[in-house]
Amino acid sequence: MILLDTVVVSELRKTRPNAGVVDYLKQQAARAVFISALTIGEIESGIERQRSKNAQFAVELEQWLAVMEMEFADAILPVTPAIARVWGRLCVQTGNKGIDNLIAATALCHNLTVVTRNLKHFEPTGVRVLDPFSAV
User: Fold this and answer.
1) Helix/strand/coil percent split, the chain, to 5
2) pLDDT by residue (tens digit) across 3-46?
3) 13 DSSP assignment
4) Residue in 49, 30, 31, 32 with CA at minimum distance from that of residue 41
């Protein structure tokens, strides 16, 4: 089972997404693919940054995010107290308090592999990682 990092979810929105990502995800059973609620927050942050630069693009992103939330409705993992505790330990171990550590903590608590392009962000946490971008 896998947890998609934000960079992978965002890749799926592109007109021509990376072939390695598309091929990898086609091989996964839908019930084995999850995202973190934090991914929704990261995407929302990107939408807000776009709002003053390109309002139409921000609207398009909002619509895409709404569809994505519906598609992943039963596969969006919240941050629980157990995840928060693991994150706290990871913060000390890695010296990083960022969202990637929260995503790693989510994967560790649910025994998931993080699917990402940003291996270096996750490797210090000890979570299993996979880069589908390099599979082309």
Assistant:
1) 65, 10, 25
2) 999 999 999 999 999 999 999 999 999 899 999 999 999 999 99
3) T
4) 49
Give all domains of the chain, ordered by start, each with its CATH number. Answer: 2-37+76-135 (3.40.50.1010)
Q: Residues 49-85: pLDDT tens digits?
A: 999 999 999 999 999 999 999 999 999 999 999 999 9
Residues 6, 39: contact at Cβ < 8 Å? yes
Binding residues for Mg(2+) are 5, 100
Strand runs labelled E in the chain:
2-4, 33-36, 76-77, 113-115, 129-130
Binding-site positions read 5, 100
pTM for this predicted structure: 0.94
Alpha-carbon torsion angle 24, 29, 32, 37, nearest 10: 70
